[in-house]
Design a protein that fits this description.
Two copies of one chain form a homodimer. By secondary structure, chain A is an alpha+beta fold. Chain A contains two helices and three strands, in the order βαβαβ. Chain A has a single domain, classed as Mth169, Chain: A, CATH 3.30.1280.10. The first copy, chain A, has a three-stranded antiparallel beta sheet.
Chain lengths: ~80, ~80
Amino acid sequence: MLLAKVYVTLKDSVVDVQGETIKDATHSMGYKNVLDVRMGKYFEIKFDKRTDDFENDIDSICDDLLANPNIESYRYEIVEDN
Amino acid sequence: MLLAKVYVTLKDSVVDVQGETIKDATHSMGYKNVLDVRMGKYFEIKFDKRTDDFENDIDSICDDLLANPNIESYRYEIVEDN
């Protein structure tokens, strides 16, 4: 089996309101050394086998389903998962 | 600077409704080789310097703020970010 680990993050130009809120909360907790927090999504997709256009398939799933290409970018890594 | 990359995922025993929905959607798109999808959260936390109890600090932030320990688990890695 194959496991695709997909990371979807807001583009740098997009204000991350949830991340800002979490940063403020860490400061309230006393962790003044926190400079920035960015929040994203993480997906683990299991495939039973590699297809001919495997990377293209993952790109399509990311573009059409997991990420909003207007405001988010994604990256992924593929690992063997037996 | 230091960057903590935190991955928060549902425990294996917890049904991932969003992941199931995404799996069904991939099948509708024709990707029949998708066996399973799990959805989680991903955080990037920037710190200006390492504190004495740095790993403990990150554990506290994860336990108290980022993850619900009843249903979620987390892991993190720390990288230099200059």
